[in-house]
Amino acid sequence: MSVFSAIGEDREIDRDEFTPGIEPQATWCPGCGDFGVLKALKQAMPEVGRTPDETLLVTGIGCSGKLSSYFESYGFHSIHGRSLPVARAAKLANPGLEVIAAGGDGDGYGIGGNHFMHTARENHDMTYIVFNNEIFGLTKGQTSPTSPKGHKSKTQPHGSAKDPVRPMSLSLASGSSYVARTAAVNPNQAKEILIEAMEHDGFAHVDFLTQCPTWNKDAKQYVPYTDVQDAEDFDFDVTDRREAAEAMYDAESRLHEGEVLTGRFYVDSDRPSYGAEKRATDEMPADPLAERYLSEDSEWERSADLLHHHR
Ligand SMILES: Cc1ncc(C[n+]2csc(CCOP(=O)(O)OP(=O)(O)O)c2C)c(N)n1
Ligand code: SF4
Ligand SMILES: [Mg+2]
Q1: Residue to probe by mutation, ligand 2, list 28, 142, 218, most atoms within 8 Å of CB
Q2: Rounded distance, CA 145 to CA 108, Å?
């Protein structure tokens, strides 16, 4: 039986399957928003219909990066800012996998910003969750790319002089085909957004507002949110690029004025993913490359064998 036979299994899935058998004690601080991401993700999985065996969670480095330790699935705790290249390779080698990449605002919008831009542009089919707590949590509260202007920290004691990154606007301009914002204080919406993002065929980016009570008590992540899909004065078409861009810009500006707007901001269901494009032009086989690699019958040359030839 193939190691890939779990994919496509048709049975009831329970959220508890995503809790590791020997449950590690989460080292997140009490009240940390990261617990909300874990909970929403566990609740979303059964509705997406994926088992732990069909799922890969790749994380970066940070408090957020620990997510893969507390979630039962295939996991890869990668290096700082590099979750996306790992996730892309895995998805291309084994397209049947549900691939989720996750990391912090420093990880994804700072050191990994280049990978974010190009993974979005290429529309790789995966879900990318960015825990946005507007600081570097793990390394004790330094200013991050999403810290608001004037934010004081140990690295910017007189207040940050920089304008923050606009994550959703950057995402849209780079080419993401699904862009949403949700918040850990809003677990029901978060679950729905994660389901949509996983079911979306293409690069789905979720800017997930997470509170850090230890290093960023002043952040707006605690403020009650407004859902843009329900807000009366916020009427726009999520499939229209220009309208989405305007709505995002507005939401990003209002965040630091104390108003938290969440929901889906952009959805393009027509654009084929990178993998689909490659398969359509016969540049990639329909069967998983990873399966060939593990097969003893495959005549595919392994790079390690090539290395021996050239010695
Ligand atoms: C190449 C590299 N540079 C710096 C670090 C140190 N470092 C670890 S986590 C981190 C930032 C974490 O912030 P963020 O990505 O926002 O995650 P959070 O802890 O807030 O969830 C930094 C700078 C590292 N591990 N590797
Ligand atoms: S330092 Fe902040 S982000 Fe990290 S676990 Fe504690 S509360 Fe969460
Ligand atoms: Mg952070």
Answers
A1: 28
A2: 9
